[in-house]
Structure of Xanthine dehydrogenase:
Amino acid sequence: MPPGYWRRRKVSAYKYLGKKIPVIDAAQKVTGQTRYTDDLKLSGMLYAKVLFSPHPHARIVAIDTREAEALPGVRAVATYRNTSQVLYNSTTRFLLQDPLILTERIFDQTVRFVGDRVAAVAADSLEIAGKAIRLIKVEYELLPYYLDGEEAVQEGAYPIHPQGNLALEVVQNAGDVDKAFAEADYIFEDRYTTPPVHQAALETHTAIADFGATGKLTVISSTQNTFGQRIVLSKIFQLPMSKVRVIAPPLGGAFGGKIEAIVEPVAAALAILCHKPVKLTYNRKESMISTRTRHGSVTYLKTGVMKDGTIIAQDFKVITNTGAYAASASNVIKAMSNKVFGSYKIPNMRFIGRPVYTNLPIAGAMRGYGSPQAYFAQQCQMQKIAKALNIDPVKVQMKNLIDPDGVDPRNQKPIGNPRPKDCLRRALELKKNWPPLDDENGEYLIGEGLAIGMHGNSAYGAHTDQTSIIIKVHDDGSCILYTGTHEMGQAALTLQKQMVCEVLDLPWEMVDVVAADTDTCPWALGDFSSRGTFIGGYAAKEAAEKVKARILAEAALLMKEDQGQLVLENAAVRSWQSGRSVSLPQVMDHAQNVTHQEIMVTHTYPTPGGPGSYGAHIVRVRVERQSGVAEVTDYIAVQDLGTVVNRFSCEGQVEGAIQMGMGYALYESLNFDERGKCTNSNFRKYKIVNATQMPRIQMDFIEEYEPTGPFGAKSLSECALVPSAPAIINAVSNAIHQEIHDLPYRPAGGR
């Protein structure tokens, strides 16, 4: 194949790429055949329930489990007294290279939030386990507590952890910020806040653990990080990794909330105690109070601007509320610090980020991973700047947005092939299609808003990011793709299969996929950081290219022709020179019986870069004058994603991002009373956007080849979320003629 062949091809020339191909498990899902973790039942399986702390901060003085243990059908009761006390971090990704803060235990003598784990029971039935939990008697010594991050780091604050309440501080700089502020014509300073929110995956957290007679721990889990789970469980229980197996069936959604080890260590501890399989499934309330949330944040944003709208300096000071334990605190704040440098040509920038421990539920990963909080502040202030200078917000954006040859101001390195300006131009074209909004009675205020968003591709820059793929060719030429990628509704397995079929030119039904099993699949970092297509897809593409080369080499021996004259197409090898062809079964028969080899390839792809994906969103809202309630009526989303791999998947990801962003902007917030108890831990009180509330949506994609992506593709799903909330808030702000600094928007009782 000539150099640059793939790059020169247009999407329309591909057989599988760019098409509307249904996800590979769509039929099973809609017919109820897909078996999720909670659908599984092992022989002799027990059921678990967890006792949660009713206090925000307390030391367990005494715990009496005798009545629970005496209850017929109870097989094990786990507390801090009879389980591993190894400190760990639930988001661990590498055995030796993760510089993470270790603050967690399965059970601790100190509980640090309402919903912290106190004990767990394994019993013959869920009902018995629930009854046993209520029989456990606990005496607590109450300790000082903090719900607000800024209060928790005041001088003299009681330490939630021995090292204090500041988890860490991250500082990033470009240029001379203070000098630039002194030279600016105008200075804008604002404070913005975002709340903790729930990922709201349809499937709650669940795990089945089994500790067999061979001493091997097997965990079947709704996780999006099987290999990370294996490391955490290996460390906690002091088992070699060969004695820990983690399997992830298809997930019913995750959105980042299932990256970390949460229910898995508890199920494993109980399985080890009773030597029987144990299932632990959280209900909705338990998932909302005791798993992970998005980080709440306070952002102090200072921006220096010239009279013509040129931004010359920007300073972020961010406090994130990381809750009771470190978990993803360091990773999220570092990711946030990197992403704010990626969208604009601002020569002087500073970011200071401080994750703070409080006595709220643990904050972790959620779609966007730090970008939504930072871009909410930045994009809302961009609109304020435009208004103050009496310049069209579009002109302010276009003057400052990064160009395709743009660089990171910190190190002057290229940022891939960024196309936010193209996104904004296309969004403005689509806006011409908006129908007029009729309001004959003057009941509504109408507003429009726009926002730009950016998200990275992979964890490149933070640490090594790579994925391995195995492709095995069967006797008939069909293949199995073994991947560590997880299926959680994002269609990553489908996209990887598309790339393999494209390279090998095989019929769709001739490629099968086996995924997310640490014993049978090759290593992968996990499904987060927008890496499933960008890195997993590239690994699959290159693995398929190696398989193709092996097939052609074998066919050359069989056909006694030069390999360079052979082409693999339609499950056969054909010679350009002679016109002769052989079938794949013939090639495989030759490999087995003549050259005596199996055609199986293991390939590892470490990404050489982490470009940005970009989006421009324009929104129209109407706000009811009497109530102040806002309704999103029209929505435009244009995303820069390099190459559309699967149009069905892309459209679905954008629609889902809009739905999630609407919730973040207008409705969603985990609320807590004065003692840290969540007051809306169910879907009756925690409002998420439903189908009837969705607006008219127009979307499009900017397809400009990204050299570091597979077939030129970049990520989409997280980036599409980032501009959604600020675009909506800017529209509401324009409608009501008031600045909005806090999410979610709360109507003031009419306008």
Notes: Residues 5-33+466-606 form a domain with the Aldehyde Oxidoreductase; domain 4 fold (CATH 3.30.365.10). The chain has a mean pLDDT of 94.
